[in-house]
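[[Sequence with tokens]]
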Amino acid sequence: MALKYTKKVLEHFMHPKNMGEMPNADAQATDGSPACGDMVTMAIKVDPKTLKITDVKFKSYGCASNIATASVITEMAKGKTLEEAKKLGWRSAADELGGLPAVKMHCSLLAAKTLAEAIRKYEEEHGLAKPREVGGLTQESVLRELEGVLNPEIGLSIVRLKMVKKIGIEDGVVNIDISLGNTDPEFSKVIGEEIEEHVKDLKGVKQVKVSFA
């Protein structure tokens, strides 16, 4: 079934803003999931006096929604202070585009998350934020990662939807039980792949196993 995109999504897809390289970036971040085929790199230049983002570039490896959300959020971030730009969440990007199909809502999350990570790196490197401490592998650390996994049918976090029923950790193997509820079972594969991509890089993880009920 063909996805229905808004005119603004198609406009940003066909004529993306701020796409390209930034050789002398002040900070850069890459995020995404090879499993679903969507990845984004964002680079920023920041005025050290005003802490405003003077330039931002992105490279996208993915679908029309991936390109469009990266394009629109970089446009929204340009000229804003770091604090202002950090408030540009995934819904801000989706709303600016006039909405996205639920199955593509994860693209707006990816765009917002990558921008936030680039800002975080700048802040850490310039003493504006404390470096994040790397803790042990716990249920809490796994749950934090799962907050970034969206139910593609609804476009909301699986944690917020209370789909995560159990997290078990033993000898580096993370077992996660997910309740699909009324979600179409056809989305289980995408959800499972996203869960694995988010959790597998946590320190101490050897394997991620996802079960659906």
Notes: The chain has a mean pLDDT of 89. The helical segments are 7-14, 64-77, 82-86, 90-96, 105-125, 139-146, 188-199.
